[in-house]
Design a protein that fits this description.
Blueprint (H helix, E strand, L loop, with lengths): L2 H14 L5 H17 L9 H8 L2 E6 L6 H13 L3 E5 L7 E6 L1 H32 L5 H34 L1 H18 L15 H10 L22
Antiparallel strand pairs: 1-3, 2-3
Amino acid sequence: MTKDEVLAKVRKLFELANSPNENEAALAAAKARELLCRYNLSIADLPTDDMKTTIAATEKSVAAGKVIRNWVKGLLIHVAQGFECDHVIRRRHGSSPILTFIGTPADAEVAVYTFHFLYRQLDRLVDRALPALKRENRGWSTAALRYAYLDGAVKRIGERFQEQTRAVRAAEYRGCKELVLAKEQMIRDYMADAFPRIRTEYGKRRAVSVDAFEKGYGDAGAIRLRPAIADGDADRFAVTA
């Protein structure tokens, strides 16, 4: 395959990376990066307009209720890191907080999609686990057991994201260092320009049920981190508290 043929394929893949179908977008972006690496090409080999599309920053947001619990903040952080995005929580007086992912169009789109998917998976798991937890931990309120379970589950999800992405990130850096650095710089520049007064927010410390935390941690080991096309979950909706 000639250089021009490879770049033509890469351009088409980057066009697909802007698809409203999140899984298609993610696969197309990954395939484009793979082709650039395989043929020892870089983003600089693309025409200027293609380069701008490839490394342009965008925002994708999701609502998650009026109160952002520790476990929701944790899930936001882990999903953002898992898809090479940054993140912010927008708080405006009189309205619910908005969770925002900042990254390339494909990365940010799939991050929101995955956040939706994992949020709902966790909601189902904790509802299933609560009856037994309440019987076995009578000194704790239902809310305390719920949040301890979800804290444990999100901790495990974060560890699994790190395990899955560590090798991928290392391979990308070795094969496509220029693309990785360009994306990182693009996100830093966007954050500095769009959020000049951003501040770090920390979770609140509290006592938790060890049993509920460990149950959530264990159950989260079986959650599929990346939703499949068959799930049919591409619709947009606001996550409820």
